[in-house]
Here is the input.
Amino acid sequence: MKHADVIVVGAGPAGIAAATAAARHGRSVLLVDDNPGAGGQIWRGGIENFDKAGEKRDDPAKTKALKGLVSSGATLLSGFRVFDAPGPSQLRAIGETSEGTEVVTLRYDRLILATGARERFLPFPGWTLPGVFGAGGLQALVKGGFAVEGKRVVVAGSGPLLLAVAAHLHEYKASIACIAEQATTSQLAPFASSLLSHPSKVWQGISYRATLYKTPYRTGSWPISAMPNEATGLLKSVQLTNGNKTWQEPCDMLACGFHLVPNTELASLLNCKLQVGFVAVDEQQRTSVENVYCAGEPTGIAGLDAALIQGEIAGLVSAGQSASHLHSRNLAERRFGARLEAAFRLRPELRLLPALETIVCRCEDVTYEDLAARSSWTDAKLQTRCGMGPCQGRICGPATQTLFGWTPKSVRPPLFPVPVSAFCVHDSQQTVSEEIA
Amino acid sequence: MPESITVLVNGMPVQIQAGSIVSAALLKAGEPCRLSVTAEPRTALCGMGICFECRATVNGVRHRRTCQMICCDGMVVESDR
Amino acid sequence: MESDVLIVGAGIVGCACARECALAGLRVCIVEDSVTGGGATAAGMGHIVVMDDSPAQFELTRYSRSLWQQLLPKLPRSAEYETRGTLWVAADEEEMVEVRAKHSAYGAGGVRTETLNEAEVAVEEPKLRAGLAGALLVPDDGVIYPPAAADWFLERALAIGATIVRGKAISANKGELRLADGTKLRGERIVLATGTDCSLLPSLPIKKRKGHLLITDRYPGFLHHQLVELGYLKSAHKLESDSVAFNIQPRRTGQLLIGSSRQYGDEDSKSDAAILTQMLERAQGYMPELAQVSGLRVWTGFRAATPDKLPLIGPAEGLTDDRTIWLAAGFEGLGITNAPAAARLLVDQMLGRAPEIDAAPYLPQRMTTQAALHA
Here is the structure.
């Protein structure tokens, strides 16, 4: 059993900011994350990208944040995934390595949830072909050593993530055929102009465009099918449309994701109230549950700066400090987030993409036809097994919400699949409590 | 310069950069991570340990998420069937 | 419009009753508030098993299992019916004595079984730990996916004239069923097949018995038969305290369903960490490799338990003066197994048909006689 004054779940930007702030103000802090290193998705570590001069590429914001974390005194527990909250102020996490597993019980006085977001995947014919990846998914794989040099990639779906992914893939020497963003130019316009009120984001935007200046960015366009090479079964091309004309884009890979959905499962397990699918928080990042805070994407998809500010606020408040000097920036980032949401709202045509035989639940290979006859998430789950697989509805849940308007029911432990032995932890074994310094 | 290690993917040796994830080795070998319920070949989709499409058998243990696992020299990886 | 039979509850028992009524030419309407088969039907294990904790239970499960076997060719693929057999596992010589006793008893009752010694058990189920005394194999027991079976029963009933009304029944009185939205339905008989919900008849002697189950990822070939430890019967018998008993089932998908636990008095559907630990440790004791198997989900369910562990099938005489109220309730852990027999016995009584087995042990009116005897 490990005890810390403050436990932060998720070592992305929000979690790093929260842990750093709390630790700097004297609290013992444990930062828990399931990846091999800190950074979350946007600052994911991995195989270093060497540029032509053999120099490592540097992301200044990330470097600064990680340095701050290390010097703050917070303890980082990497490779551990929280799967249960077995008692008051307690979490249970499991670490899996190629050698074995270890289960640890974590006790906290205050908890900060910084569990981030995941991509939304929408089914369309051919989306299960080898060569079709998530947008953030392909980026993560490339950071993990998947070589894409010389490969032709179509990036499609929705969200600012598409630009970041395309720019990143370009740096790894992939050739980007085009970026297809389902939102129309007019829908995006208010967001684009709001970038002017956020100078740092403008620079980010400009640096993407500089990298990708030759790449077509087609708004109001979306994929309607991924076509295989008949002989190899591998992806050959993607059929795209803008509602008027349809065209084929030959490619080796498709990086496709439709914006982000928040990871609210742990918050739900702890009975935090949700609002429109996001964790409800006050201006001090407090959830509806005492001593539980939430920062970053689970409170609203609003990007990196929002995550950093919210994380800092949660860290300060959990350490008994005031964060009022950050409130106006927090509000500004929330407004940005609202514009972000409006800009990338999904168009109704996306609901009609799947064919009858298109698989919707990938864990159980349940097709659109199987699901269309069901009346609710629960009915579909019981009769077709949709949502009963290892992803526990994290992929097909948002998809069926878009397709049919279904909302999944309550969350139960384990939050992620764990070995049977992980359930057999005796509290008596956990009396030896390690105090996190 | 980065060093390279060898892992076995479905019996074939694959050279890969040290620090790579196991999914990358499977992709490099052109092998699927798993076959789905209706025998479709599947590989990693989300890259963050959530979709479970990247499950493969690593060193004899089934259903390991390969997108969050770093390769070690001599690791034995087989597609989940 | 008046029905011959109104059935409250579209779980597997209610749906089986609806089909049986419709087949007998009765005008039947079934009322369901939520999802077909969404209660105990979905929570349970889907085990079709002959159980001999009493002669009456043995008769009912034997009869019902034979009805399931007759249904087998008609059931859809989604019902995942498989004749996996049950292995009653004996940990020691004392339990082996029970195995031999069961072998005789089942044989006398016309149910095929085989006794296996230690070596034979190891061949049948290689993943069971070494050192077990032996087992009883009941080869004709089956496994099914209950929500799909319930859906099929309902769909068959609707195809031959039954109707379904979605809504919550709030009162059942002299042939009139009132729903929460104000709808009134009339029927000559009202059958309560509502699981642990006794709101329509508070005098029902039914208590909730909470159980836990865990389902794993796919491990084809890990397990061939359903396994039950002989201590299962002792666990099912305990009327007061919490208990666990090893029980594991292979699904057609290759997933394993691990149970079982029984608790009285706990009405919370949240899973109980302490008893879950006990249950899984017991399972690992019998099959050590389960420790590393990936567990996808844990859930709880509530069995409907009666004081004598037999279900209530027939008119609710003695529990109410209202002669329109009938019962198909109180199946404890055998709701799936006994659904077809319950439906058949119910309709036999409605039509005055001679039942194929003696229906007396399951008549609700026995509750008053027993109560009088114990007074």
